[in-house]
Design goal:
mainly alpha; 205 residues; 10 helices
Length: 205
C-alpha cells in the first residue's frame, strides 16, 4: 500500500541501491584483506552490517559480488583521477597519485596481484574483467591530460596501454620486494616517456 502522500516507498526495496553499495564496499575491504579465495560471504555481510541472508538477496554468490566489487574499484579510481586532474596535477603524475594509497598497503597489493594472476585462467570468474582492462584504460586515456590513446610512429595506442599495464603490475611486484624504492616516481618517469610532452601527439588518421 502506498503512503498517504503516494510518493514514499516502504519496505526492504526502498534502500536497495544504497544497501547494495554498502555490501559492495564491504566486499572490497574483505577481498583486499583476505583475497578472493579466503574472503567469506559471512565476513562481508558482517562488515556491511547485514545478515548473510540479506546479502544473498542482493547477490547470488561470491562470484557476482567479486565482479561488482571490481567494477566499483574502477569507478572509485576514475572519480579519484578526475579530482586529481581537476586539482591541476600534470598528466604523467596522475596515475601515480591514483595508486599512492594502494602502493602504501603491501597486503592490498599482494591480494590484488594474486587475484590478477588467478584471473589469467579463462575459467576464473574475473577473467573477462581483467582481459577488458586494456580497452577500458584506452577509453580513459582519451583526454586532454592523458593523450596515450593516440598512436605514434613507433607504438600504437594499444601497445602503449599494454606497456602501462605491464609497468603497473611489474612495479607492484618490485615494490613488494623492495619497499624502500620509490616506484611511483619511476612510474611518473615512464608515463612521461609513453605520453610524451603535452600536445605533441595528434590523433591518428
Amino acid at each position: 500500500m502506498s503512503s498517504p502522500t503516494g510518493t514514499r516507498r516502504r519496505g526492504p526495496y526502498a534502500t536497495t541501491p544504497a544497501r547494495r553499495l554498502q555490501i559492495v564496499r564491504a566486499a572490497l575491504a574483505g577481498f583486499a584483506e583476505h583475497g578472493y579465495e579466503r574472503a567469506s560471504l559471512r565476513d562481508i555481510a558482517a562488515r556491511a552490517g547485514v545478515t548473510h541472508a540479506a546479502l544473498l538477496r542482493h547477490f547470488s554468490g561470491k562470484e557476482e559480488l567479486l565482479l561488482a566489487a571490481l567494477a566499483q574499484r574502477e569507478a572509485d579510481e576514475e572519480e579519484q583521477a578526475a579530482r586529481i586532474i581537476a586539482a591541476g596535477t600534470a598528466g604523467p603524475a596522475v596515475l601515480g597519485a591514483v595508486l599512492a594509497d594502494e602502493f602504501a598497503d603491501p597486503d592490498y597489493q599482494r591480494n590484488w596481484l594474486a587475484l590478477a594472476i588467478a584471473a589469467t585462467s579463462p575459467t576464473h570468474p574475473a577473467h573477462e574483467f581483467f582481459a577488458g582492462r586494456r580497452d577500458r584504460m584506452r577509453t580513459r586515456f582519451r583526454s586532454g591530460s592523458l593523450n596515450t590513446a593516440y598512436d605514434s610512429p613507433d607504438l600504437s595506442a594499444d601497445d602503449k596501454v599494454v606497456m602501462v599495464l605491464a609497468m603497473m603490475d611489474g612495479l607492484r611486484i618490485q615494490t613488494l620486494l623492495d619497499p624502500s624504492r620509490d616506484s611511483l616516481r619511476l612510474l611518473e618517469i615512464f608515463m612521461q616517456s609513453v605520453i610524451g610532452p603535452e600536445g605533441d601527439e595528434q590523433p591518428s588518421k
